[in-house]
Amino acid sequence: MAASRVLCIGPHPPPVHGQATINAAMGAAMRGRGLETVVLDTAAPSLDRRWRYRLGRLPRIAGALLRGSLLLAGGRAGAVYMSVSGGRGQGYEIAFALMGRLFGANLVLHHHSFAYVDRRSRMTALLTRVAGSRALHVTLCRCMAERFRAHYPAARRVLPLSNAVVLGAGAGPARVRDRVAGVGMLGNLSAEKGVFDVLDLAEELARRDVAVRLRLAGPFPDAATAAAVRARAGALQHVELVGPVYGEDKDRFLEGIDVLLFPSRYRDEAEPLVVHEAMVRGVPVIAADRGCIAELVGGEAGLVVPMEEFVEAAAGRLALWASDPDALAAASRAATARFRELLARDAAGPDAVAAAVWGTNPAG
Fold first, then answer.
1. How far apart are CA 245 and CA 188, in angstroms?
2. Across residues 308-333, what is the average pLDDT?
3. Taken in order 209, 322, 186, 284, is the CA torsion positive or negative?
4. What's the maximum distance between 2 C-alpha atoms anywhere in the chain?
5. Nearest-CA neighbor of 9 among 32, 21, 27?
6. Residue 292 and residue 201: Cα distance in Å, rounded?
7. What residues form DSSP beta bridges with 136?
8. Other Cβ atoms within 10 Å of 269 Cβ, number
9. Containing H/E element for 337?
């Protein structure tokens, strides 16, 4: 029993966000490969990033450490799969890695943040040393794996695994976009996610007399941001605030747009799920160059530029696509093809993770 039971440690829905979604999906993938999972949910009570809400994780962290230690000590689990935070949350994950090492568990660490890949972190270096040379480190793309290895030589086994694999089961026929009727932003409508850059883009499109409707979907992080965005959007003719969308509403939103905007400044940004969710539907992406995004989109499925060039470059590309339906259709087909390419490239990844849990060697 112990060899086939894995402790899945990290945030799980609810609340819904990228890391929690991937944790849940990876748990399902392991169960589909004959493993039994025990979920030790460490999610904060909400998506609010203020300290009093982050501290709400502490009871869950303590409970997960206690329960995990009892299961490992009693021989009722033999492996630990855990997601890794982008900042101080790694202090908790060091404790979980130490727990796994003390009881001889097989360790798999899934990395979702580029913050400590862009720049070496002493805390991440400590985490990799505590996890040991046998631990498998899962990154989200090839470039992330290369930088991670360079910064953290204690991580001997590194496996790139695109989030496209998690979404692959839903990859069906995609509608080819051949006119720019609607352009969308989907995510937290915050400054760090680029909402004000999208509003700057709306103003630039108006100056160029490019009549493209911009649809902004997602929650606001706070009342001040909501007021500022609503004030600016209200003064612009072609901007619509949709509000948060989930489930079927989210699907309809993505099906209804022709281009996705992703001008993120977020320091942890690595491989946003919404980019995959757009591309699998044939929606080209215009994004800022953060994390794995350039590798995801490639050279034909959209446009990836430095953040400081986003507004000007996005306005130019949207103007081109608005006047040239064939160019947009080519980018639309390329988006679907790129998603399927990533899906095929990393299709064996979940098997490699399962092998690491069993204690065999999936990656060098």
1. 11
2. 98
3. negative
4. 69
5. 27
6. 23
7. 108, 157
8. 24
9. helix 325-345
